[in-house]
Every structure is written in C-alpha cells, then in structure tokens.
Amino acid sequence: MTLMHRAFTAFAFVAGLAALGPVTANADDESRFSGIAQLDLTNAYYFRGILNENDGLIAQPWGELYMNLYSSEDGLIRDVTAGVGVWLSIHSEETLATNGPHSLYEADYYPLISTDFAGGFNLLTIYYFYDSPNGAWDDAVEELNFKLSYDDSESLGLSPWVNFAIETHSTSLGPNSGTGVQFGIAPTFYEGDAFSVSGSAEVGLTIDDYYEGVDSSEDTFGYANIGVGIGVPITDTWSAGGSFKYFFFGNDLETVNNGDSSYPVGMLSLTAEF
Fold first, then answer.
1. pTM confidence score
2. How many CB atoms lie within 10 A of CB 189?
3. End-to-end Cα, the chain, rounded Å
4. What pLDDT, in 10s, does the model give residues 54-79?
C-alpha cells in the first residue's frame, strides 16, 4: 500500500464515521464538526531535536478537521473526538531536493482520536505518515503516538503531558526503527482579552534506537527546550501569535546537528479555528 493510499484510507475512515450519524450523548449536529488551520513561519525546523533545516525561510502550514463522536457529563469517558490532519514544511533552501516540487520538503498525514476522561485527563492517539515530496528521503516514516495530558488549571496550572512515539516503519534518525518519549509542561502565565502569555518546557529521551548516533552509539538524552509564547485574538475565528524556544541537544544530536549544542528557534503564527 502506497503512502497516498494510506493517507486516503485515514481520511476515508473518519468520513465513514461521519456517515454513521450522531452517536453523541449531549451534542447536536452543529457542534459535532470543528477544525483548525494555521500558518507558522520559523527560522529553524527541529523534529524532536533532530535538525532538518535552519537556513532560509521555512513556512509550515497545517490543518486538522474534527468530528465529535461522543460527549457526556458523567462516567469515566467524557468525550471522544476523531480527526484527520495534514502538516507541510516548505523551505526556500529546497532542502535535500532530488525532484519537484523542490521547496516542499515534508508532507505529513495523520488520523487521530482524542479521548477525554474524568478528572481532567486526555489521551491523544495519532498515527503519522511522514513523507518527503521533494525526495529528501525515499521511504516514508510511520509512527504511532500516544500523548497523555492532564488539565490542572484549577490547581498548579502547569498542563503536564507525556508522549510515547513508536516508529512502526522506517526511521527519522539512524538505521533502526525506535521508540522515544517526550514530556513537558505548558503553563499559562496570563490570559486577558487583548493577549495571553504562556510558557513551555520539554525534554525528549530515547527508549530504544530513537536517537542513534553515527557510530551506532545512543545517548538516553536527546534534547530539551524552554520557551515562551504570546497569543493575540483578532476575531472570534482568527488569532495571531509568536513564540521563542531555546533548544539544548545531547551529544549524539549535537553531532547530527552540525556541531550545535544549542539553538534558538522563533516562530510567528496565524490561526483560524472553526
């Protein structure tokens, strides 16, 4: 099965769910569908600490469509939402291009399931297909992700999360498919009508073969970053934002990342939610 066939299957799966009709406990048809579209402009693209490009202009548009399958105010499971997404990375430097479209370095396709549990817990399950339309790599990488997050806004307000990434086909780094874990916090420092200020901190570790070095060595520590972000609402639908993160890399990733032990990454974003 080709990558496009897999992506089509993912989209068709969610479309099929929509055709089944409403299965929600407390939601009408108008509230079942939602989505987000965003354009990010950044000075560098690091995938979980792995350098992809840090020269030229990098534009990363992406979008996700959601359908609410179940919603309830009682019980263990409070909400189930299915969705599909597309994420692109477009580089003015035509990174590693061997064919056209030369600027389209990466195209990702993914189905997702988001489940809210009682007590403020959420489990987000995503299956990614990482493809390179410009031929930067030939074999699409496939990865299963389980992200568990906790809404502690009524107490500490740190919004902690942990994600397990399991490569199921090919690999983003090294010869072997691997497994990694990332965890972090995303506190909101201020939220007002005119703007909001948030922070972030994240660490990425290998479990097995996720950050393989050039000599087949592997440090447990992959990367860490700390950052701050500002969001500005424009209308009920549109918003803008900016963020800054400073990355720190382990020994193996420092070698992979052209000898950089750290790197600053800034981003500007324009978002529409519907």
1. 0.89
2. 11
3. 33
4. 999 999 999 999 999 999 999 999 99
